[in-house]
């Protein structure tokens, strides 16, 4: 790529740079993207082989969305039916459900969004984490009925078209998962956590809570405490922390593969 | 989960009315405790009144009355917002810490201040409907009394129930002498001191609190104090995070020189309610803030403990935790 | 033709990673089916006895209920079909608390769950056998021949004569696998064929066992399991819920979704049993072992036996003239125990390696030196030479990398603030096997573009199977990885070994490699040409203008491997901080050094080891399932009561692999890493706790109350 080849960035691209390389954003906006920016972006986003892999992975391994979307198929026997209108991943959705139905079951069974997972159904694992009105919550302990008028973002809504969210890229690069079942919850939780840090939220390991509140730079220990509501039985914790730290700090976190 | 009607309340008055009319109705706030228990078939409301939209989430200074100079937390404010509000962090860091010691980021984003106060015990026999439990079904017996009771009470239990109360937030509120503001169906608002809000099990373990059915928690009031630079919330648990307390201690001191003017100590994980360690507090007032005095205070408090089959360790752990929490309070959070 | 650089052995990202980070990877319950009904199981609330009556009146009338199935109307199934744990609704007998006794099927999940609460059951109760403390004395010799007493030399005499000895009992509690994905099935019939979307570590095993149980031919049952949300042994053998989903779907003539709740998991899909292990060690003053006895007492199901091989490490780890390995087992009214990560080796190594640490301390020897002193030059249990063994290297390299020289040899010498700091070491092993596996490789050429599809009924439960097979096939065929597609997790593909017992990588990768080699050879023959430099299959497809070609192999381990004893070996190093007032323990640093032969992908391999370490740390510090001895129910029936480690429980973890070329174990020299990562972890932690505090904890987990 030539120096300052493309001064015009789309909104998506700006967002990507803003998320991944905030420290370079002003320069990019003024002078455009240069080779150094590009290389840095590639490192942050997981590197060359990624592009090649995405192609295979996309077509081979993902779930085919069913043609028979059950969304509007309402069993006649529904009791205490509630009609809910809300926004899911940017789209307006309206559905009629049993008042007992959780947001998690609604996403999975009615809206064909099976990315959010049911690990425990009791608020004890975090696999069902989604982002409602900008904050991370557990969809298994949320009644769908209570979501009327709210915006819901799930793992399916994080990527922009074919471009992964920086957090998804970082999880890939750092192998922040094994079986992958806790992953949608981990990623949604991590994405919202970065926002909480920007707002200056504290945690139990923060120490002195009294100084004025402002954006905080999270240590690995802070990330661990703040992510503790997301259990990973495969034990991908160190890799998840590395992925989050990379996106949070905007600095590439080294991967070490040691052998002697 | 039993079938229930779902109503979204738009104002407090009608919400309270709806609740008061139906003995089997429940308020739904964050839902993190209620839905959990409904899925287990422990709670069986026939109607849910969703109060989460009510405009009761402000955190603001109290400008008049006995608690002037203190602050008020909306009953429907989220735990996260309470913990992170500049007023709370600056003047009541003990409360922030206690909230942040509880549950997980996601749950604190959902959980409300009022709902947190009314969460029910985590006793595993209470949660399993196939087991006897006087709290869930009065008269069936207490599964834990002669069962597995490592997590259970060492203070104030009765033969009818040996459960502990799980909230961290309420332990800090107890140390801070908070008041719970409730509104009833006739529109009356009253203030229940936190010490009177909770109760011991006695022979009515089915009652966790003294809040009658049909009343809404609208706010929590924190009186002004001088504890902000000498307080600490210590939570000891079986894993590092996302676990209920084996023992927790909220400690706050006001000193002049090294002399203790006021001491507040409350414990979690040891009784059916947040346990105010009055004996320990009394021992400390007027004394020097030294390790030896902390130990004497802890000994005084724990002397009354009555452990069950599997939880004798809580007596020693409680003792050490009081000492440690006091030390950390004095040292600004450092050991 | 441009050269394609080799990718095997490089840390490429997971092939299935994109699907996983976007939420598009389909686990059991994520497959789309038309018009499903929802099933929920209900359970017995006594641990022993017989169902007297089931009152379903209210449940049958509940809205949305389509059917209720109990032993009274369930079809006749073959209880010896190979599913584990019974509970197939074939009789009113109750063998454990939480046994499935019926299924409710309804239009929605909410309706099924509600109706299941309305069912009233009465029982003829019997006194349950669930109190291990009381029953351990009645334990008897297991039926399993592998668990017969194994005696070499005379342990008793050696012990009697020794000045330096340790004779202690080590306890490990019941543990549950708790994979994040609860066991769940979607069953869909098509005539007399049924498709079961169901996570399976052993795809073909799930197929044959379910078919036999349902009285069908294997080809009538198809298991679809492209993604597995963790298994750790609990999705190796399959359980009643799989067949019952099929039964329910048949009964209501509709696809049925049946998921276990997290609470049901504790009584439905196996567990690791409570092991009471007595270790007796004797040594000379200069640290040469003279006796090693490992005697395990445990429990199994009331009508079925499973015993963890706790003595396995003790058989092969150290050189000793006198050795004794025994097992005793007592049946109890609890769910059948089963393979759990590092079966026998994780628990057995806790006992053995704790005892080794105790004896080293008595001998005033460095625990690493003590272990090296007793290093066997061949397998002491059968006299075979090692295919490769890296224990000494693991210990020495680990010591260097970890800073072992900073360890204080006496406990309670290292204080930092409010914490005691301690270092611990432990060594372990897990056997390496390659199992028969078939693989089909298909090549297709369009112009110059050659693409491969690799098919076998293998499983990837986060182990990296997709990725390593893509790498293996790409290199063996001369293709870039994006031209290779791997299809696994479907019983209609060529049969493969299970992803259990660390046999997955070795079995699958060797089979795929064999298939690619065979295919290339066939293309060479087909070309009728002679080559100086052997061309790749991709090159041959182009040069010979072949558009489609495929071949299949049924791969087996090399016979020569029989002559060797093949194991992965490791050494683990832990640094713990123990809070002086509260007893809370944190593993600050952990290092695992592993010799596992060829590492196909350092990224996924490191993750596997770290994952095993996290499991081991959980075993050491937090995990325990507790039974109420009066009723036989688990009081730790949720993830709030059963503590698996969280993010904050895990400090800095590091993994080092020994560059090891094992020429005997199999063609690719792969020994397997899935299990060895958990072996000797708990012991390293417990030994570090001793070094920190001077307290020797012989009963896991090491919760704060035990170190106060
Ligand atoms: C896995 C897990 C771990 C947890 N760990 C901890 C922990 O470590 N420490 C801790 O303190 N807590 C912990 N919690 C509990 C959590 O903090 C509570 O569930 C939460 O605070 C309850 O608040 P809520 O708004 O969700 O209440 P809800 O579940 O909505 O309501 C609880 C009860 O209060 C009633 N109610 C709610 N609001 C009002 C009101 N304004 N007036 C009158 N009645 C009302 C409801 O009718 C209901 O009976 C944990 C929870 C889970 C699921
Ligand atoms: S301790 Fe209380 S809550 Fe627990 S079983 Fe006994 S009565 Fe029920
Ligand atoms: S499924 Fe919601 S927290 Fe586990
Ligand atoms: S990746 Fe398997 S549970 Fe986290």
UniProtKB/TrEMBL annotation, chain A:
<dbReference type="GO" id="GO:0046872">
    <property type="term" value="F:metal ion binding"/>
</dbReference>
<dbReference type="InterPro" id="IPR002888">
    <property type="entry name" value="2Fe-2S-bd"/>
</dbReference>
<dbReference type="Pfam" id="PF00111">
    <property type="entry name" value="Fer2"/>
</dbReference>
<dbReference type="InterPro" id="IPR052914">
    <property type="entry name" value="Aldehyde_Oxdr_Iron-Sulfur"/>
</dbReference>
<keyword id="KW-0001">2Fe-2S</keyword>
<dbReference type="InterPro" id="IPR036884">
    <property type="entry name" value="2Fe-2S-bd_dom_sf"/>
</dbReference>
<dbReference type="InterPro" id="IPR012675">
    <property type="entry name" value="Beta-grasp_dom_sf"/>
</dbReference>
<keyword id="KW-0479">Metal-binding</keyword>
<dbReference type="Pfam" id="PF01799">
    <property type="entry name" value="Fer2_2"/>
</dbReference>
<protein>
    <submittedName>
        <fullName>Ferredoxin</fullName>
    </submittedName>
</protein>
<dbReference type="InterPro" id="IPR006311">
    <property type="entry name" value="TAT_signal"/>
</dbReference>
<keyword id="KW-0408">Iron</keyword>
<dbReference type="GO" id="GO:0016903">
    <property type="term" value="F:oxidoreductase activity, acting on the aldehyde or oxo group of donors"/>
</dbReference>
<dbReference type="InterPro" id="IPR006058">
    <property type="entry name" value="2Fe2S_fd_BS"/>
</dbReference>
<keyword id="KW-0560">Oxidoreductase</keyword>
UniProtKB/TrEMBL annotation, chain B:
<dbReference type="Pfam" id="PF03450">
    <property type="entry name" value="CO_deh_flav_C"/>
</dbReference>
<dbReference type="GO" id="GO:0071949">
    <property type="term" value="F:FAD binding"/>
</dbReference>
<protein>
    <submittedName>
        <fullName>Xanthine dehydrogenase family protein subunit M</fullName>
    </submittedName>
</protein>
<feature type="domain" description="FAD-binding PCMH-type">
    <location>
        <begin position="1"/>
        <end position="227"/>
    </location>
</feature>
<dbReference type="InterPro" id="IPR036318">
    <property type="entry name" value="FAD-bd_PCMH-like_sf"/>
</dbReference>
<dbReference type="InterPro" id="IPR016167">
    <property type="entry name" value="FAD-bd_PCMH_sub1"/>
</dbReference>
<dbReference type="InterPro" id="IPR002346">
    <property type="entry name" value="Mopterin_DH_FAD-bd"/>
</dbReference>
<dbReference type="Pfam" id="PF00941">
    <property type="entry name" value="FAD_binding_5"/>
</dbReference>
<dbReference type="GO" id="GO:0016491">
    <property type="term" value="F:oxidoreductase activity"/>
</dbReference>
<dbReference type="InterPro" id="IPR036683">
    <property type="entry name" value="CO_DH_flav_C_dom_sf"/>
</dbReference>
<dbReference type="InterPro" id="IPR016166">
    <property type="entry name" value="FAD-bd_PCMH"/>
</dbReference>
<dbReference type="InterPro" id="IPR005107">
    <property type="entry name" value="CO_DH_flav_C"/>
</dbReference>
<keyword id="KW-0274">FAD</keyword>
<keyword id="KW-0285">Flavoprotein</keyword>
<dbReference type="InterPro" id="IPR051312">
    <property type="entry name" value="Diverse_Substr_Oxidored"/>
</dbReference>
From TrEMBL, chain C:
<dbReference type="InterPro" id="IPR037165">
    <property type="entry name" value="AldOxase/xan_DH_Mopterin-bd_sf"/>
</dbReference>
<dbReference type="InterPro" id="IPR008274">
    <property type="entry name" value="AldOxase/xan_DH_MoCoBD1"/>
</dbReference>
<dbReference type="Pfam" id="PF20256">
    <property type="entry name" value="MoCoBD_2"/>
</dbReference>
<dbReference type="GO" id="GO:0016491">
    <property type="term" value="F:oxidoreductase activity"/>
</dbReference>
<dbReference type="InterPro" id="IPR000674">
    <property type="entry name" value="Ald_Oxase/Xan_DH_a/b"/>
</dbReference>
<dbReference type="InterPro" id="IPR016208">
    <property type="entry name" value="Ald_Oxase/xanthine_DH-like"/>
</dbReference>
<dbReference type="InterPro" id="IPR046867">
    <property type="entry name" value="AldOxase/xan_DH_MoCoBD2"/>
</dbReference>
<feature type="domain" description="Aldehyde oxidase/xanthine dehydrogenase a/b hammerhead">
    <location>
        <begin position="22"/>
        <end position="127"/>
    </location>
</feature>
<dbReference type="GO" id="GO:0005506">
    <property type="term" value="F:iron ion binding"/>
</dbReference>
<dbReference type="InterPro" id="IPR036856">
    <property type="entry name" value="Ald_Oxase/Xan_DH_a/b_sf"/>
</dbReference>
<keyword id="KW-0560">Oxidoreductase</keyword>
<keyword id="KW-0500">Molybdenum</keyword>
<dbReference type="Pfam" id="PF02738">
    <property type="entry name" value="MoCoBD_1"/>
</dbReference>
<protein>
    <submittedName>
        <fullName>Xanthine dehydrogenase family protein molybdopterin-binding subunit</fullName>
    </submittedName>
</protein>
<dbReference type="Pfam" id="PF01315">
    <property type="entry name" value="Ald_Xan_dh_C"/>
</dbReference>
